[in-house]
Each structure stands twice: as C-alpha cells, then as structure tokens.
Design a protein that fits this description.
By secondary structure, this protein is an alpha+beta fold. 29% of the residues lie in helices and 27% in strands. The chain has 1 helix and 9 strands; from the N terminus they run αβββββββββ. The strands form 2 sheets. The chain has a 5-stranded antiparallel beta sheet, covered by helices on one side. Strands 4-7-8-9 form a 4-stranded antiparallel beta sheet, with helices on one face.
Length: 190
C-alpha cells in the first residue's frame, strides 16, 4: 500500500503576518537608529574639519616663515553668531610683535580671509560654556600660538588655564564634541 504524502508548498496567513510584523519592527528601529547615527557622523566630521582648519593655519604659518611672506601669521576665527569659522592671515612685518600684546582687529586692512566654512544646519557652536576659544593665531618661526578666549588679551603661558576649547553640539543638544587648543599649539579632541 502506497501512502500519498501531502506536500504543503506555501505559508499560512499567520506565518506571513508574523514575518511581516517582525520585519516592520526591525525596519522602524533601523530608521530611528540610522538618523541618530547620521547626526553623530556629521558632528564627528565637522570636528575633524575644524581640527584640519587649525592645522592648516599652523602649516601656512610655517610656510610663511620659510618663504618670507608678507604676513605675520595665520589663524582661525570662530564666529559663534553665524556658526562659521574662517582661516585668515593677519599683520605685516615688522609689527608682528605687537599682536601678542593686543588683539586681532577683524576690520583692519591687514586681516585677510582665506577660507570661510559654515557649519551644517544640524550642528552649532556651543557658546554657553566658559573658556571658549574665539581666535587662535600662529606666529612663525615656532610657531608661537596666541589664543583669545573671552577677552581682549591672549592667554599666556603663565596663565592658570593655558588652553581654550571649541564646543560643537547638535541643535537638539543630544550630542557634543570638544576641541582643545593650548598655548603650545597642541590640538586635541574628544
């Protein structure tokens, strides 16, 4: 006697509903996760771009000394109001030593913008914190590093706090990054 085996070649409606429900739940989780992840990537990318701008200003200063260019040095200006930063050159020899005891005048004809960068719409500078960096300027040959932070005179090596910070955060405040610059020209970030 030969038994006929029934071959079921399909899914039941309950199996299909359960499968699609699990897929929908996982997809919605991934969409939310990816949006958060994208913002974190944009924040880290902007931090890296700003560190690159600081290193570019330092490199331009060293090349100024080697080539005997007509400026005192290069720096980065953080514009908290416009959420932008710019690389600039400033001063003309022999007046370079006076910069260390005064401030950089952004309206002076010696101030020349090299490159301006705007932050993306989801990232802003956090200007609510103390000891935030406004201008960092490099003077050859070392390069000597001048930092203006919430004041009219630069931070000196003898100051109790010889570094300043640049704070970046998301507009909703959920994530933030910090860049630290000290008077020795060291740039670190976390």
């Amino acid at each position: 006697m030969i038994k006929k085996i029934k071959n079921n070649k399909g899914f039941t409606i309950v199996e299909l509903i359960v499968t699609f429900s699990v897929i929908a739940i996982l997809a919605s989780y991934m969409i939310v996760y990816n949006k958060t992840n994208k913002t974190q990537i944009v924040l880290s990318l902007e931090q890296a771009k700003l560190v690159d701008a600081l290193n570019t200003a330092k490199s331009l200063t060293l090349s100024t000394y080697v080539e005997g260019n007509s400026s005192c040095g290069y720096g980065v200006y953080i514009n908290y109001r416009n959420n932008s930063y710019e690389i600039f050159k400033y001063g003309q020899p022999p007046n370079c030593s006076a910069i260390a005891s005064s401030s950089i005048d952004l309206s002076n004809s010696s101030y020349t913008k090299i490159k301006t960068t705007n932050l993306p719409k989801e990232i802003i500078f956090d200007n609510s914190k103390n000891n935030k960096l406004n201008i960092i300027f490099f003077i050859p040959p070392d390069p000597k590093t001048l930092i203006w932070s919430n004041g009219s005179s630069p931070i000196s090596e003898n100051s109790s706090n010889y570094e300043a910070n640049i704070y970046l955060k998301t507009k909703d405040g959920s994530m933030s990054k910090t860049i630290k610059v000290n008077v020795m020209g060291q740039i670190s970030f976390n």
